[in-house]
Amino acid sequence: MITNMNKKPLICITTGEPAGIGPEICLDLVNSPHISKNNLLLIGDINLLQKRARLLNKNIRLVKVEDIDNFPTLKANELAVFHLDCPEHECIGKPLTANANYVLAILDTAINLCIAKKSQIIVTAPVNKDVLNLDGVKFSGHTEYFAEKFGVDKVVMMLANDLMRVALLTTHVPLSKVPEQITVENLNATLKIIQDSFINNFNLSRPKIAVCGLNPHAGENGYLGTEEIEIINPVIKRWQEEGSLVSGAYSADTIFNRAKEFDLILAMYHDQGLPVLKYSGFETGVNVTLGLPVIRTSVDHGTALDLAGKGIASSLSLHSALDLAVSYSDTYTKY
Asked: What pTM value is reported for the model?
C-alpha cells in the first residue's frame, strides 16, 4: 500500500460537478468508518464545500491540505480537502460552462497524485458530460477520460451491487455503432482485462464469466443475427479450450436471472446490462474501471441536479464505492 507521513493510505475523492449532488454526498463521508485506517482527501473548492455544508446544516469542519506528505490528523466531524478554485459557487441545479475547467482540474489532480505514487485509489462523484462538451471538451465519461490520462489503450467498465457484477464490451457509444465494435480483438482484450482484474482484485484465479449475445435470443442460430456464430461463440470456445470458465453466448433477456451462478456477466452494450443492474440495486451500485494502473470506483448515478442542495440525496452509492475500493486495495498489485 502507498502511504504518507501518518502511515495511512491516501484515497482521492473527486467531488464532481458543483451544481449537482457530488459535493454534498462527499461531505457525508465524514462518518465513514474508513477514516480510521485511511486518509480520505476530498478534491474540490473548500469554500464551496463549506457553503454546501452550511446550507444543509451539516456540522462539518473542512481542513485544507497543503502538503500531501504531511497529512493532518483529523478530529471528529472533520474532512481533509485539497483546494482548487471553483469560479462560480452559485450554481446549484444549474451547471455552468464557467466551471468546466474546474471539474476537469479535480480529475487531473487525482490522476496526478496517483501518477506521483502518492495514492493508488480514486473514488469519483458524478460529473455533467453536457456542460463539459459545451465548453469544448470531448468528454464521453470518466472511464474513457481516465484511460487516456493514464495512457491505457483499453479499459473495461464494470458495475457491481450486492446481487451481480456486470461488465460492458462497449461503453458510451451510439447504439448504431455497437455492432462494428463486436470484434474478436475487442472481445479477447475485454475478457483478458476482466480475468486479470479478478485475479488481482478478487483472488479468483478462474472467474466464471457469462457472455451475452448481441442479438435477441443470442441470434437464434443465425435467424436474428450472425455476430454470435461468427465472432462471439468462437472467442468463447477459444477461452474454454485454454481452461477459462467463460460461457455463452447467452440470451440477455434471461441470463441475468442466473447472475448468482457467475462472478460476472459481460454485456455487449451499455443499455443491455446496466438497466438490469441498476433496477436490482441502484443505491448500492458501484462503477469500477478495470484495467487502469490504479483502483478507480464511482457512484453508479448522475449529478441529480433536481436533488442538489435539498438535503435529500442519498450517499449510499458513494459509501459503497469507497467500501469496494478499500476492499480491492488489500490485494492490488499494479504498484
From this structure: 0.89
